[in-house]
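Bit of a strange request maybe. I'm writing a small parser for structure token strings and I need a real example to test against, not something I typed by hand. Could someone generate the tokens for this chain?
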Amino acid sequence: MTPLMITLLVVAGIALLIAIGYINHVVENNKVERARTKVELNDRLRRCGEITETFPGQLMTPALKLLLTRLELNVCQRLLNLEKTSSNLKARIAELEVLTALGEGMPVNNPPAPIQTEAKAKDVRFLLEALHGQITRAAQDGFLQPTEAKRWIREVRHILVLLHIEFFNNLGQHSLQQNQPGQARLAFERGVQYLRKQQEPQLYAEQLEYLEKLLARANDQVMDRIAPVEGEVNQLTEGLKDVEADADWKKKVIYD
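Reply from user aminoacidic:
Good idea to test on real output. This should exercise your parser:
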């Protein structure tokens, strides 16, 4: 074996080792990427399910229900490409395809969940933030067209406004029922200020007028409470003046 052949064999051996190392690196990266994608898709699937099942019925529309069904179907189909033998995914995809075919005629069974506490309002706001994230990711993946994604993001913002309107209204009405007009006035005032700060306040002109009337009603009740107190203070002041005058008269008699 000549020195040239030995050199060629060594070079070939080194090249083979490099190729094997590169292939192993690519395979390992593909495994890591596959695992990362599965974790991400499962998380998105969980979030879609959470929004679909727990979103308050009074804020859930057939169009929104259809969107959530489409988003979940897309994620399930992508997961099935990674888990081709999953019977659970296949069954769920079949269910979602039937629902999607119904369009906005699909049943919306979410029960109403009145927004009566700040904690409940925060919970729904978190659901809206999760929905916003799902829409954004679907647009990035190319599943939703940019125009459709922008339309739904505007709708999410609109639902957020409706959430605040319901919260401030319920909070104020509850305070009125509890005979706490001061607290009611504060709640209605917050609602009025919130609507006036919206980029398109004309969209909520009717709701704003309604809250302004409630605010005026609560303010009248507060003022009605203040008036008797002021009257009592005036009577007390006059009484003190009479006592002081009587004391002065007694002092005058004694010293005279």
